[in-house]
Each structure stands twice: as structure tokens, then as C-alpha cells.
Amino acid sequence: MKRKIFVFLLLSLLLSTIGCVKKEENNNNAVSLSIEWMNFSQGLQKARQEEKPVMVDFYADWCGPCRMMDQITYEDEKVIEEVMKNFIPVKVDVDVEQALAYQFGIYSIPTIVYLDENGNEVYRTVGYRSASQILADMDEALSRIT
After folding, report:
1. Which residues are catalytic?
2. Alpha carbon distance, N-terminus to C-terminus of the chain
3. Do 60 and 8 reside in the same domain of the chain?
4. Which of 8, 26, 69, 100 is most buried, taking the most CB atoms under 10 A from its CB?
5. What's the domain range around 24?
């Protein structure tokens, strides 16, 4: 019995040590990627220049699901890669840009509106989106553009 406890403790210690080393390696070697958000007018201008669609995230600082998307969904490496490769990313604070939120009929947040390079809406989602959901949403939006 003592031997089993000793082996269990030794394995636990070994596994926790490996986890710590791996985290340190990731922290030291990781290249910090993030989505380079733009404001609406800059985003539309760049979309026309690069002939790329726009992904507009309507949010508010006080919105819990919006903050969760910033902390979880938009930190996912695959999401970052797909957004930066296929879209011009735009963030619109509905409290600051109320007229723009009204223009797009934003009544609930987070709302993500996908626009073609000319600013025409092609798709939208409302509510929190996980990484897998937003990846599927981006595919859907792109399929409606091409």
C-alpha cells in the first residue's frame, strides 16, 4: 500500500513538473499573435484597397459575453489566423458609436456583422461565439461573398 502511494506521489510530482517546464517554454518561445482591430472607417477603406471582406464586432465594455469573446475566442490561434488572413477586423463600441450601431440595427451584443469589400452585409451572428462557432461563421460569410 505504501509503495502504491509513493508511486502515485512520484508520478504526480513528475507530471506537475513537466507541466511547469512546458508552460515556461511556451511563455519564452511564444510569438504573441493577436487580431489587429481597426475602427469602422479605417476598416472599410482598407477593405476596398485590399478587396477583402470586413468582420465587424459590435460590443460594449460592460458586456460579459463580449469580454469572454475577447479573452477566449479572439485569443484562439486558429481564429486569429483566419481573421487576419481572410478579413479586415473592425471593432465598434456601441456606447461610443451609437449612430453606427443604430444604422446596422444592433439590438443585442455581441453582434458580429460580416460585410463584403463594398460594405454590404452578407451575414451576421448575435451572441457569444466559441472558437469553433466563429470559424464556422467565417466560412459561411466567405461562402456568401464568393
Report:
1. 63, 66
2. 66
3. no
4. 69
5. 1-30
